Automatic annotation (TrEMBL):
PROSITE patterns: TYROSINASE_2. InterPro entries: Di-copper_centre_dom_sf, Tyrosinase/Hemocyanin, Tyrosinase_Cu-bd. Residues 1-15 form the signal peptide. Gene3D superfamilies: Di-copper center containing domain from catechol oxidase. It comes from the Eukaryota. It comes from Aspergillus sclerotiicarbonarius (strain CBS 121057 / IBT 28362). GO terms for molecular function: metal ion binding; oxidoreductase activity. Keywords: Copper, Metal-binding, Oxidoreductase, Signal. It holds the Pfam family Tyrosinase. Residues 274-285 form the Tyrosinase copper-binding domain. This is Tyrosinase central domain protein.
Amino acid sequence: MRSWISLLLPVLAAAGAIQQCKPSQARTRKEWGVLSTQEKTEYIDAVWCLRGLPSVLPNGEYPGVRDRMDDFVATHINYTLYIHSDGLLLPWHRHFIYLYEKALQDECNYKGTLPYWNWTLSTDNSTLNPVFDGSSTSFSGNGLPIDKTNATALCPKNIPCPTPGTGGGCLYNGPFINWTSHLGPFSISQVQPYGDLPPNTWAYNPRCLTRDFTPDWLSSLNTPSKISSMLSAPDIKSFLSLMSPSTLGYVGAHEGGHAAIGANMLDTFASVQDPVFFLHHGMVDRVWTLWQQGDPESRLLALNGTGIVHDPPTAELVTLDTMMEFGVLDCPVRVGDVMDVLEGEYCYKYD
């Protein structure tokens, strides 16, 4: 992982001091469903633009990385075992989706902000949600149904085993019907509990984008009452126990959103290959932001957990001085510098 530092992009901070963000000047990230048709179209066009730009990573070393979008996929893969089910999940992904938003704006002339997917809307039928209704202003819908006779059910320890999904195959409608996944697939079981990256991590394996809608996940983990419980959590440990518990085999709202979409989004390493990943993590960041702002004095800088997946007992605890790495996307970033969305280079809020 450390070898990526040699590939870092030039630092832009030297160009001038970062301006102080005033709450009244903060740009608003909005729920996908409230955007106008033009705003949705502009965002979708920007995502496709990123797919059409060249990668920064050298193809000789990373043959499966074919475009600028894959730079984000590869970065997430490279740090997967340090940024999930632990103390870095929230701060690392906050900066990661910000870098994606900036890439859309700076490299694809996108004028808007990163939208989010509100899990609590249409929890019983995702195809009713504007994010997934299959229209020209959606992120496409479900995948084609496939035979699941020999499929292995994913049964967490803290919720009933969900019923099988209704899809599993390639997308068949909407703007991302021809979207291609280039890396993976990977299984987290290949590296459990705290191992190295999977074999042939960077191999080129082009295939269609797949989804397998399983609404039981949303109705168990992503309901309005679950969000309310998170927002009223007395401390960050309690918050994380509902958002993404570190104990192996237990799941929270973060995992519920991934599993509800299923298929590619269930690939812990390469879930970024589904462009809806960023709307999902926009909601993760929104809920965390609202929780922080509910009691800034005690919550704004609150951290809990380590920098290793599932918080092994020997791992060091994350602190405000912990440095997070982003490969070719950015220089290493101090955790303390991403804790406030109205400070540093950030200047955004949620509706």
